[in-house]
């Protein structure tokens, strides 16, 4: 399913490309999952969102039934499993955005994702508006302090800034540069953009990948013998 969807995404033209995002001030839309996810898949996602403190918005169908319209939850909270540590949640958040930064087009980051915000359940409850859960009102002075002193905010903010900076310096990530799905372990999302190999481990296991690149652009680490170990929810841009 992963490869099937990505393989259909090709350059639009020489003057237009894609705007890609994972989260916004609205919920996580489910209408676009038609033909990709089954009704059972969507129900499982809804159950997880509720477990993680979120809410579900439904739409009324002509036959009187209801179907899931969007998931109302902060994106980093949506990625969590029950009982997971903040450290793992941070890694998952960066992992997801590594995919966003790797694919063709222009990545857009919702500011609450950039700043490592969490569910604002109180705002959603008081207003009665589910979307308010991901629209926390921020005080500039408090935010600036928390980006320095709150480990969760700081780790996500600095991690995303690093991804953006490295990406900005690589011509292979030109928004119009085609992408190629490359063979890899089923637990790894793998693309080639220009001369950069993009690997994202979407599992909780260490995965050894085979690659033609010799340097991890994110760490400067040199790669020998064509193999590289991706830690759980780890990622790499290899050139």
From TrEMBL:
Domain of life: Bacteria
Protein name: Sucrose phosphorylase
InterPro entries in UniProt: GH
Organism whose genome encodes this protein: Listeria weihenstephanensis
